[in-house]
């Protein structure tokens, strides 16, 4: 472990928050406690869908995620917030092994999905990514028709016995994503002919077409206008009845609107986690408070 990357006191001081009275001793105590930083708040939930313990991520020498432990509940929206570069996307990508696609990335610790370690050698990664779908910052439809974008996943996973069943999956997925009425007469047109907000809803339809259990969203509205954003937020609220959703967002208003629990990350550590309302009204850690009151970020 490398001391140079522990929480940067000068940055906190310049942000106007109180520094530790005895930072070196506090850091030593944190290391003794088993992690570089002990999270404030209860990281556990009853019957979690995901249970992450002592997760560390390295990009070569760079230690990007530091001993993060957190559970993710079923039928819950968990928001992950924190300053740029604090590791939100990195942690999100651990949950469906998207970091596998980055050669320098190394993940340690344990991440259990429904009690099974997703980093187990026997884990089929294609299967995992169907169970744990992902929606990205920029809508990324395939260069295919609207229909084919949604039909692709069910087809490769053999979810439809025939064309009638496939049509039905495409229909329900588009409907659940709140897009059906806008596209039902133009299913064979290229997905790229849709507006940005429609493309993002198409990407959500594509994700739910393969019956996932969890949907990961990395700043899904940052490329959208306020109206398209409101539609996605409404959709997230509806989807929560069926799926666990983890959303990374730079908008604290969005986190407050859509999530039930919020996790605050800082320099790769999970500083605080708790019910969204409490995090935003009564944060316990001075770093969380400094961030939500806009003193840095
Ligand atoms: N592929 C990579 N190779 C090396 N370092 C990386 C890579 N991806 C991210 N990092 C580093 O890991 C740290 C965490 O990055 P990450 O993208 O997870 O942050 P983030 O919280 O999502 O930031 P943002 O809010 O800007 O999207 C940063 O210091 C970043 O520079
Ligand atoms: Mg990011």
Task: Explain how this protein is built.
The chain has 297 residues and is an alpha/beta fold. It has a single domain, classed as 3-Layer(aba) Sandwich (Rossmann fold). The chain is 36% helix and 22% strand. It is built from twelve helices and ten strands. It has helices at 9-14, 23-32, 88-94, 125-131, 146-156, 163-176, 180-183, 196-208, 226-239, 252-258, 276-281, 286-292, and strands at residues 50-59, 62-72, 77-81, 105-113, 116-117, 132-135, 214-218, 244-248, 261-266, 269-275. Strands 6-7-8-3-9-10 form a six-stranded mixed sheet, with helices on both faces. The protein has a four-stranded antiparallel sheet with strand order 2-1-4-5, with helices on one face. The two termini are 25 Å apart. Mean pLDDT is 89; it is low at 1-22 and 28-35. It binds adenosine-5'-triphosphate and magnesium ion.
**Rg calc:** 20 Å
The coarse silhouette is globular
Secondary-structure element order, N to C: HHEEEHEEHEHHHHEHEHEEHH
Number of domains: 1
Q: Strands of the biggest beta sheet: in what spatial order? A: 6-7-8-3-9-10
Share of helix, binned = 25-40%
CATH architectural group: 3-Layer(aba) Sandwich
Looking at CATH, the homologous superfamily is P-loop containing nucleotide triphosphate hydrolases
Largest sheet composition:
6 strands, mixed
**Portion in strands:** 15-25%
Low-confidence stretches: 1-22, 28-35
Q: Identify the CATH class.
A: Alpha Beta
Total helical segments: 12
If you average the pLDDT, what whole number results? 89
Counting helices, strands and paired strands, the structural category is: alpha/beta
Assign the CATH topology: Rossmann fold
**Oligomerization state:** single chain
């Amino acid at each position: 472990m490398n001391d140079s990357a522990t929480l940067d006191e000068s940055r906190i001081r310049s942000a106007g928050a109180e520094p530790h009275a005895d930072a070196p001793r506090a850091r030593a105590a944190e290391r003794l406690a088993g992690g570089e930083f002990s999270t404030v708040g209860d990281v556990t939930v009853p019957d979690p869908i995901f249970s992450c313990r002592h997760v560390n991520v390295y990009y070569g020498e760079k230690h990007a995620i530091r001993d993060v432990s957190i559970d993710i509940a079923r039928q819950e929206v968990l928001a992950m917030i924190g300053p740029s570069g604090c590791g939100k996307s990195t942690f999100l990508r651990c949950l469906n092994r998207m970091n596998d696609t980055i050669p320098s990335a190394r993940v340690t610790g344990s991440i259990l999905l429904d009690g099974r370690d997703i980093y187990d050698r026997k884990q089929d990664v294609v299967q995992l990514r169907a169970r744990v779908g992902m929606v990205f910052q920029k809508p990324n439809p395939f260069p295919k028709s609207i229909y084919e974008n949604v039909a692709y996943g069910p087809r490769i996973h053999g979810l439809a016995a025939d064309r009638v069943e496939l049509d039905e999956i495409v229909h329900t997925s588009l409907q659940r994503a709140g897009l059906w009425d806008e596209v039902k007469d133009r299913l064979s047109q290229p997905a790229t002919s849709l507006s940005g907000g429609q493309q993002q809803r198409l990407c959500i339809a594509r994700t739910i077409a393969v019956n996932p259990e969890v949907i990961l969203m990395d700043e899904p509205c940052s490329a959208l206008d306020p109206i398209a954003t409101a539609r996605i937020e409404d959709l997230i609220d509806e989807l929560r009845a069926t799926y666990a959703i983890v959303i990374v967002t730079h908008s604290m208003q969005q986190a407050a609107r859509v999530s039930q629990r919020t996790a605050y990350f800082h320099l790769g550590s999970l500083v605080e986690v708790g019910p969204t309302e409490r995090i935003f009204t009564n944060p316990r850690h001075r770093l969380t408070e400094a961030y939500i009151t806009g003193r840095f970020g």
